[in-house]
Amino acid sequence: MTKDVRKIKTERDIQTAFLELLTTRPFTKVTVSDICQKSLTSRSTFYSHYLDKYDLLDRIVTYYQTMLVQQLDQNFNQMVAGDLESLIHKVIIAMAPHRRAIQILFTVHEPHVDLKESFRQLLHTEWRHYIQKQGPIHEVPVELIADMGTSMHMTLIEWVITHGTDSLPAVIESISIIRKAILLQIDESQPSP
Amino acid sequence: MTKDVRKIKTERDIQTAFLELLTTRPFTKVTVSDICQKSLTSRSTFYSHYLDKYDLLDRIVTYYQTMLVQQLDQNFNQMVAGDLESLIHKVIIAMAPHRRAIQILFTVHEPHVDLKESFRQLLHTEWRHYIQKQGPIHEVPVELIADMGTSMHMTLIEWVITHGTDSLPAVIESISIIRKAILLQIDESQPSP
DNA sequence: TGCTGACTGTTCGAAAGGCAACAATTAAGC
DNA sequence: GCTTAATTGTTGCCTTTCGAACAGTCAGCA
């Protein structure tokens, strides 16, 4: 039931060629022929793997979407109460090996396929759940805090995607003040630095 | 009569996998199975392209040998009298794109397959011809000067292979003094710096 | 000495990919 | 509006690659 290596290889070749091409021109200007030429595959083979270039894009984007969902699920379950720090850290570490691909896909904004936007939505949902689990709050609207958390989170992800994980500990440390300020809005017992 | 792209692809995959493996262990310890595993090709395919791993090594090495021969031939013909500088420069520039592969192959020393050694011999022949063309010399043995020139040339090539071409002009400039000193042995009319 | 495991080199049917040709659609320029 | 060129999907035949099995070689070892 495992795939023939040839399938794995051609899909790998097609996908990396596709991503490379996206660094040279926008998605609309990338043709199937371009992809085949660069990946050294024939068009008939391309169409035996994908419906068209939209399908290709969709599948790659879906792959990273589910990767993020799995990471969030997994780490959310074993999360010690309130330890948002380690959740953020783990998710980012898991993503780091794919940072080039994600960086490229973040530039693609097609009507129904937008990795950056779906990342934002996933994180937003996660934040809303998190805030609501912390108990009822009165002073500030939940949505606002969720927006704030999501923004912070996305900014961090984008930073790591473009700069790598070398300075990650320092970066997380420096934004911890902001994070704590956000969390203070929903939990008065949260200790300050 | 042009090759099927599949052949080109598998040979490319096999060769790059092979070179990568050579960076982790010596040639003797690299098995055909290793190469196939890394390159995602089956052993039956490997043997339909190469007789064995020695044949593979041999073909890659031969490729770079002929590349050097062609470069030398080509530039030796259009060489302005005495303009050794530009010959050296052109040869090195042509080699630069392959520096990683050459660097790896320079570490392999098999009985009948040794890229570094054959580079040295090629350059040595070239230097001997060059010296003899400059007219008869009396004081110093031709072989000694050819040895000196070859050493200098090989050192320069190795330097570029490991450090890249960024500082090439500066490096060539700084060794020009040595080169001129060598050339002074065979041609009294050679102007000094 | 004989056993074992790893590697070699070869074989063959089945699966995948390449190539070339095709009609159909789209975009650009005159 | 018409023409031309480029791109898209699709098809059938042919070539290459895969995978798994096989016997043969060799080194280490009990």
Automatic annotation (TrEMBL), chains A, B:
Top-rank taxon: Bacteria
Domain HTH tetR-type: 8-68
Key words, A-Z: DNA-binding
DNA-binding region: 31-50
Molecular function per GO: DNA binding
Cross-referenced Pfam families: TetR_N
Range of residues in the leader sequence: none
PROSITE patterns the record matches: HTH_TETR_2
Matches recorded under PANTHER family: ACREF/ENVCD OPERON REPRESSOR-RELATED (PTHR43479), TETR-FAMILY TRANSCRIPTIONAL REGULATOR (PTHR43479:SF7)
Protein name: TetR/AcrR family transcriptional regulator
